[in-house]
Amino acid sequence: MQADIRQVADGIHLVHGSNTNWVILTEGDAVTLVDTGYPGDREKVLASLSAVGSSPEAVTAVLVTHAHNDHLGSAEYLSSTYGTPVYTHEAEVPHARRDFLHQVTVGQVLKNAWRPGVVPWAVHALRSGGTAHVPVARPRAFPAEGALDLPGRPVPVHTPGHTAGHCAFHLPEAGVVISGDGLVNGHPTSRVAGPQLLPVMFHHDRGGALASLDAFEALSGDVLLPGHGPVHRGPVREAARRARERAS
Question: What is the C-alpha separation between 8 and 4, in angstroms, rounded?
Answer without folding.
Answer: 13
